[in-house]
Amino acid sequence: MSKGAETDSPGRELPRPVNPATPSFVQSSTDLRAWVQRDSPRHRLHSPHSAGGRARTSALCVGAPRGSMRLPRLLCAFLLAACCCRRARGVLGEAEPPEPELVEVEVGSTALLQCGPSHSQGNFSHVDWFSVHKEKPTLIFRVRQGHGQSEPGEYQHRLSLQETGSTLALTHVTPHDERVFLCQCKRPRPQEHRLQLRVYKAPEEPSIQANALGISVNSREPEEVATCVGRNGYPVPQVIWYKNGRPLKEQKNRVHIQTSQTAESSGLYTLRSVLKAQLRKEDRDARFYCELSYRLPSGSHMKESREVTVPVFYPAERVWLEVKPAGPLTEGDRVEIRCLADGNPPPHFSLSKQDPSTRETVEETTNDDGVLVLAPARREHSGRYQCQGLDLESTASLLSAPQELRVDYVSDVWVRPAAPEAHEGSNLTLTCGAESSQALEFQWLREKTGRVLAQGPVLELHDLNREAGGGYRCVASAPRVPGLNATRLVSVAVFGPPWMALKERKVWVRENALLNLTCEASGHPRPAISWSMGGRASEHDQGPQSVLSLLSVRVTPELVETGAECVASNALGRNTTLILLELASNRSTGLSTATVGPHVRANGTTTGGEIRRTEALAWSCTPSCPFLPPPLLAQLQHSGWSPKPLPRTTEGTPSLPPLPPPAPILQGQWTGWDQGAGPWRPLLGDHTPCVEWHSLQAASVREGGRVPSEHLCSVMD
After folding, report:
1. Quick one: what percent of the chain has pLDDT higher than 70?
2. Using the 8-state DSSP alphabet, how is residue 201 labeled?
3. 483 burial class (0-12, 13-18, 19+ CB within 10 angstroms)?
4. Cα separation, 186 vs 207, whole angstroms
5. Please, which contacts does 294-298 make with residues 24 or more away whose CB atoms are closer than 8 Å?
6. What pLDDT, in 10s, does the model give residues 339-389?
7. CA 147, CA 165: separation in Å to the nearest integer?
8. Is 270 in a helix, a strand, or coil?
9. Are strands 215-216 and 312-313 parallel, antiparallel or unpaired?
10. Among the listed residues 252, 261, 247, 254, the one whose alpha carbon sits nearest the alpha carbon of residue 290
């Protein structure tokens, strides 16, 4: 460390000006004052205040061997006399002056310069203040009789006298003010006091910029990692670089830190530090930052930059395959096959597949990232896949370990016979099979009830009747792959003549009213339906063996007299349902009437016309709604209506016997009534119409869900 510099922290020197020439006085007999310039350090051979000086004088003039002295005796005597003379006269300033008093202040604040120690009791009524810059003192302020006056110059408007006149205030301190200030008191005797003003300014938050282009591990010299900039600090701060929280030091051919500083016009400094290093593959996630250390009057401080990472380029050492989703794959899944490597940048990938049956290898087409997307996956995608990575810089090629990919499937479920049919009383055997990549289990279900009939690929049906006709579903599933299954639905036809739900039915009608009648029949072969009277009729398929006929006819006296007959016939026979019509005027009671729409059915046969309310509820609505709400049922029984014996549900609710599925007009079957927290509501599978019971005597049905209102049974007040 050179003389004339101070250290505020270990290993760091703060720049300070060279010690200026120190003015001192030489007292003469005429009391004249003259400036004597001293250089620092001073070199005096004959200081009367120094023992060393006296020893040298004695050695030179007295202790030298005779004959070895080149100076004449007269000269020695003269020098000795001169020394004694100077000591006797009391020359001022010959002793080494004390170090200047240190005053520390931040840029922009006010510095208080005190002339002498705080306990000094001197006379400050006559003081001159000087600033010493480049060893040249300049008068800047005068104090006369306790009043201060600034001298023209750079300090003219920033100086003021404080307290008892011993303190000079310097406002708006800048870095240019860092120098020595000198005060001289002339009464009662000449005195002087020096002060060293030190100025500080904290730098701004350091900014850091990483090398965005990246660094290759193959570089033979340190490459630029990042640049750190600290602006507007004073004095120049010290920079320290860190990697992963550890300080970096200079290392030959490994780490190099290049730091420069720029002095701004304000006197502040901008520091710029560049970190250069050789990086390894392990540094790909390293975090770098810089720290600025600086000093203020309050002590030592530091500021840190944000952390940055630098792209590190290194060749791949390993290539592998990744398949998503992991686990068993089934047909229809979306599958991604991705090539991966541990190099940066990744090599150029190619993906090949070996067919398991032909052993042929073909190259698959991937996207730019080396990803093959199978959407949807099929059984043909099964095989052995392998990735190849080619480093375009080193031309080195790497292969991944082969990986087996299997897409499981269950498909082509078949049932034999494909269109089964049998006569009543006979037996029928159904056999199910399927193709699969896994071992299969089979199960047979009744389609309309979902009941499990058998486990295994074979279903035996014995002593068939017409109720045994309909749908049967075979389910083939792979127990080792959850959720992998396929089904096949087959319809069993039972030979027989047409089957009608009712043989006869009476309906109350009003003369000249438009009546809508429906008739449903089933059988195998599929029956055809005809009517005994003219009208507009239409047929709707209800299934492989069922048909529904709708007839619109106007009520005439002849029709009332003969009634309406629905005839269903096929190659094995015919069957009929007779609908008896009776005018409402013949009824003895005066109850209001209801119109029965084409949905009103009784075991497959529907009627319409004007009827009594209780009969409309019992024979029109309830056949389509197997469960009556308890309040309405009680009211009907109280009014004198006696239904047929009603079976009990599992909940103990009286109900009418369940009927064959309704026409496709009502998509779904009635399942019962539910009161919940509001009115009683009928439940119709996925389609639940909304029912509001306004009283026990009347009800109205309005549309709910997707069921058209004209296809619901209505009872009007």
Report:
1. 67
2. B
3. exposed
4. 53
5. 294/200, 294/202, 294/203, 294/233, 294/235, 294/237, 294/238, 295/8, 295/9, 295/14, 295/200, 296/106, 296/200, 296/202, 297/104, 297/105, 297/106, 297/200
6. 999 999 999 999 999 988 888 888 888 887 889 999 999 999 999 999 999
7. 8
8. strand
9. parallel
10. 247
Identify residue 496 by its one-letter amino acid code: G
C-alpha separations of 118 from 99, 125, 401, 537 in Å? 17, 16, 85, 126
3-state SS string over 393-418?
CCCCEEECCCEEECEECEEEEEEECC
Asked if residue 431 lies in contact with residue 458, where contact means CB atoms within 8 angstroms, the answer is yes
- String of b and e for 643-674 (b: at least 16 CB within 10 Å)? eeeeeeeeeeebbbeebbbbbebbbbbbebbe
User: Residues 207, 210, 213, CA angle at the centre, nearest 5°?
Assistant: 150
Give the C-alpha separation, 572 to 248, whole Å.
103
Task: Report which residue type is found at 232.
Answer: N
Do 569 and 498 form a contact (C-beta atoms < 8 A)?
Answer: yes
Cβ neighbors of 403 (< 8 A, separation 6 or more) are: 321, 323, 384, 385, 386
Q: Tens digits of per-residue pLDDT, 141-156?
A: 999 888 889 999 999 9
C-alpha to C-alpha distance for 208 and 206, rounded to whole angstroms: 7
Please name the residue that has the structure tokens 């020695």.
76
Tokens at 51, concatenated? 């023992």
Given the structure tokens 């069957």, which residue do they identify?
575
* Distance in angstroms between the alpha carbons of the first and the last residue of the chain: 115
Cα separation, 275 vs 272, whole angstroms: 10
Reading the block at residue 332, the tokens are 């229809």
89 C-beta neighbours (distance < 10 Å), count: 12
Q: Residue 689 pLDDT > 50, yes or no?
A: no
Cα separation, 102 vs 60, in Å, equals 40
Task: Tell me the C-alpha distance between 363 and 490, whole Å.
Answer: 43
Classify residue 330 by burial, with Cβ atoms within 10 Å: 0-12, 13-18, 19+: buried
Pairing relation of β-strands 536-541 and 504-509?
unpaired
535 neighbors 551 (Cβ within 8 angstroms): yes
The residue-averaged pLDDT of 68-89 equals 43
Distances from the Cα of 526 to the Cα of 422, 466, 499, 520, angstroms: 14, 13, 11, 12
Alpha helices (H) in 416-465, listed in sequence order: none
Q: Is 292 left (phi over 0), alpha (psi -120 to 50) or beta?
A: beta
Q: pTM of the entire structure?
A: 0.52
**pLDDT tens column, 160-206:** 998 767 899 999 999 999 999 999 987 667 888 999 999 999 999 99
Integer Cα distance of 635 and 619 in angstroms = 15
Which DSSP symbol is given to 620? I
